[in-house]
Amino acid sequence: MPTAIQARLHRLLFAAGLILIGLAFLAACGEPLRERTIEVTATEMRFDPDRIEVQTGEQIFLRLRNRGQVAHSLTIELPSGDRTVSADPGVDAILVFRAPAPGEYRFYCRIPGHEAQQGTLIVLP
Predict the structure, then answer these.
(1) Which residues on adjacent β-strands are paired with residue 13?
(2) Residue 9 has what DSSP assignment?
(3) DSSP secondary structure, 11-34, as one string
């Protein structure tokens, strides 16, 4: 039959085990998700800025601000597939994505005749 000291020791070891499991779980979760909003203004045949730098893993909220006289779109060629957002003149639209592995990714306007309207998304480690 366990003594009072043994019972207390078992409870203490059990509590310590739970704490270690909790700490291991928190460590496995990693860093909190970093979020960032970036504004890109579209005008006739131009994005401003046409070069965007982000960090791998960031949750990006890209606001396309169409300040041109015609509709514009912004498509980013990502490893997981192209992502597109469109906006009529004077309208803003939001494209949400997670920054992929480090590298350079092209973005452009899909509207026919707007082939010169493009830029580069640079993902840093």
Answers:
(1) none
(2) H
(3) HHHHHHHHHHHHHHHHHHH-SPPP
